[in-house]
Write a structure and sequence with these properties.
The chain starts with a helix and ends in a 10-residue tail after the last strand. The chain is an alpha/beta fold. Helix 4 runs parallel beside helix 5 and helix 5 packs parallel to helix 7. 42% of the residues lie in helices and 14% in strands. The chain has 2 domains: 227 residues, NAD(P)-binding Rossmann-like Domain (Rossmann fold); 31 residues, no CATH class.
Length: 271
């Protein structure tokens, strides 16, 4: 296998939902460095990231998009097809959680607001579902393409408190397997669908849950490290290698799987 060619994305159009978020920024940078034409679909523009993308000679495209809105996804697809004529890779990274859908000492499961639970499920599952519909149809017409859904270890081992988020990510895993079979059997064996399940990555967004004001671990942070064999948190850059493998021809016989990047968390039974 010629690895230089396998990881050459210079002829690839890569659509990334949630691409301006902290988890996927390192992946976006790397794909641009490897020649990919990356299109960012997100509700929030990141000027610094877009300026970095310019440095590698590819004109970056950012399309403000709420993945819960099918009309916005369709409009984004039309712009992409007009500019590039194809979509080779789709990475579904849009997602997140919110306090209203999270059980706690102050808010029991029985008190969770329906609209908060629905909102979390919609952005994580329906956003992925709709993106797969819109861009998967393009791939079906082409007879080729790769879809990578960003799941979570919470789908594999449901975590305390984050009930709606865990359920939504479990639905993403199921959709990934179903769609992998459907696309291969109905359209082309050259259309692959997989998922990547990040573990506990220490980012600015979740640092307050894992560490206190002086940088010491919270009780939840200590619990996580106790059940993580590598005994540390991960970094978003540590997702890049697995993502590149899953969306490249290096994994051309791989479809319908969920790859944990979690320091062994999902494999550990606690004893």
């Amino acid at each position: 296998m010629d690895l230089d060619n396998v990881y050459d994305f210079s002829n690839k159009v890569i659509v990334v939902t949630g691409g301006t978020g902290v988890l996927l920024k390192p992946t976006v940078r790397t794909m641009v460095e490897l020649g990919g034409q990356v299109v960012l679909l997100s509700r929030m523009r990141d000027k610094d990231l877009i300026n970095e993308m310019w440095q590698y000679g590819k004109q970056p495209m950012f399309i403000p998009t709420d993945v819960k809105e099918k009309t916005q996804l369709t409009s984004a697809k039309n712009q992409i097809m007009k500019s590039f004529g194809r979509v080779d890779i789709l990475i579904n990274g849009a997602g997140g959680n919110q306090p209203g859908a999270t059980a706690s000492d102050e808010q029991s499961f029985f008190d969770l607001a329906e609209d908060a639970v629905t909102s979390v499920f919609d952005v994580n599952f329906m956003g992925t579902f709709l993106s797969c519909q819109i861009f998967g149809e393009v791939m079906a017409g082409q007879g080729s393409g790769v879809i990578l859904n960003i799941s979570s270890v919470a789908a594999i081992k449901p975590l305390t408190q984050v009930v709606s988020y865990s359920a939504a990510k479990a639905a993403v895993d199921n959709l990934t397997q179903w769609l992998a079979v459907y696309m291969a059997q109905t359209y082309s064996e050259k259309i692959r669908v997989n998922a990547l399940a990040p573990g506990f990555l220490l980012t600015e967004q979740n640092r307050y849950l894992l560490c206190d004001e002086v940088g010491e671990l919270t009780q939840r942070g200590r619990q996580i490290l106790t059940t993580t064999p590598m005994q540390r948190f991960g970094d978003p850059e540590e997702m890049v290698g697995a993502i590149l493998w899953l969306v490249s021809d290096a994994s051309r016989f791989v479809t319908g799987i969920v790859v944990p990047v979690d320091g062994g968390f999902s494999a550990f039974g606690g004893v």
